[in-house]
Design a protein that fits this description.
It contains five helices and 18 strands. It is α+β, with helices and mostly antiparallel strands and 360 residues long.
Length: 360
């Protein structure tokens, strides 16, 4: 009886040894993929837009509140613009007056120039006539010289007329140019009375209210730009072997059930070179800040959305992604041999045994 029991134990031990040996041998050839789940969130990769006042004045109306969606060119707020409109109209009237003055000056100059040319022509004819009469003795030489002096005086007057017109026209054109610039500034002020959104986005801050007096370059509102969204993951050091740059992976949005909407496809673009508990003091040295309570020993990985929801069974359009939404990334490792996990478990068992011995 004892021999039979001993024989059974021996066969059992042999089979167990053979099974163990076979498992070890197979573990060198069997490969598997390991998947880890890493938490992250949706982020915006486009900067927000800060709307600042271009003029100083009183806010008359505010059309949007925080978290409201706005389209491009929507009016966010308006200033009381009465004084700016009055300045613009007065400047336009001044410009029209200067232009009219220039036109009148041109007309007067052309009339005076024409008159002067006629006088010079007439005097030239008189001088020719008196030259003939002087030769024949019918007129004195003094009369001819008198007409010559009058001709010289008329030419001098014509030259002075040209000089005066040039000075006057230059003065008026300079004033017109100056007033034209003033009109552009006044028109810009009037246009700035209406604050418009330059993009499609979401109002994240409104910093003014009706009847509030604000100065120039004061922040009116902040508009979040959701036009391009990305992915952000917090990686522990042991996650790094699973993450590769330009690696495609599955992304599940916690707000939208996977069985109804499916998953996104993402791609990692960059991984921070340092963990967030290390800071640079601008001297080139890495500083250890592990004692800080608000620092986490983790890397930051940024990615992009390559493809939208791959298996949307809800019968609706793909849902809207918003910044801050929690997500889970499914990262799959490259092929690993089973022997690796067996060796890891063996090391863990040894460590556990060593820790238990140290207690006793």
């Amino acid at each position: 009886m004892r021999r039979k029991r001993f024989r059974s134990i021996r066969w059992g031990a042999s089979l167990l040894l053979l099974a163990t040996a076979g498992t070890i041998v197979l573990s060198f050839f069997y490969k598997y993929k390991e998947t880890v789940f890493i938490n992250g969130k949706i982020i915006s990769t486009s900067p927000s837009v800060f709307l600042k006042s271009e003029i100083g004045g009183t806010i008359s109306k505010v059309y949007f509140n925080t978290n409201d969606f706005v389209n491009k060119d929507d009016i966010i707020a308006e200033f009381t613009c009465t004084s700016y409109i009055r300045d613009l109209n007065e400047t336009k009237e001044q410009l029209n007056f200067l232009k009219d003055s220039l036109n009148l000056s041109i007309q007067a100059y052309e009339s005076q120039l024409e008159s002067s040319d006629l006088a010079i022509t007439s005097l030239n004819e008189y001088i020719s006539i008196y030259a003939e009469l002087t030769k024949s003795g019918a007129a004195s030489e003094m009369q001819q010289k008198e007409y010559a002096q009058r001709l010289a005086q008329e030419k001098l007057t014509k030259g002075q007329l040209k000089t005066e017109f040039s000075r006057r026209s230059l003065e008026l054109k300079t004033k017109i140019s100056t007033v034209s610039r003033q009109i552009k500034n006044a028109q810009s002020n009037v246009d700035s009375c209406i604050v418009r959104s330059p993009i499609d986005g979401i109002v994240s801050e409104v910093n003014v209210k009706p009847q509030e007096l604000v100065g120039e370059k004061i922040l009116i509102a902040k508009i979040f730009n959701p036009s391009k969204q990305g992915l952000l993951f917090t990686l522990t050091p042991r996650n790094l072997p699973f993450i590769e740059i330009d690696q495609d992976f599955e992304v599940r949005v916690m707000a939208y059930p996977f069985d109804r909407y499916g998953a996104l496809i993402g791609k990692i673009n960059s991984i921070s070179p340092l963990t967030s508990d290390l800071i640079d003091d601008n001297t080139g040295a890495t500083q250890d800040n592990t004692n800080s309570s608000n620092k986490v020993n983790a890397f930051l990985a940024k990615g992009e959305i390559v493809k939208g929801f791959t298996d949307n069974k809800s019968g609706r359009n793909d849902p809207i992604l918003k910044d801050g939404m929690p997500i889970v990334g499914l990262f799959t490792s490259t092929d690993k041999r089973l022997i690796y996990i067996l060796s890891d478990q063996f090391v863990k068992i040894q460590d556990s045994i060593s820790s238990m011995r140290s207690r006793f």
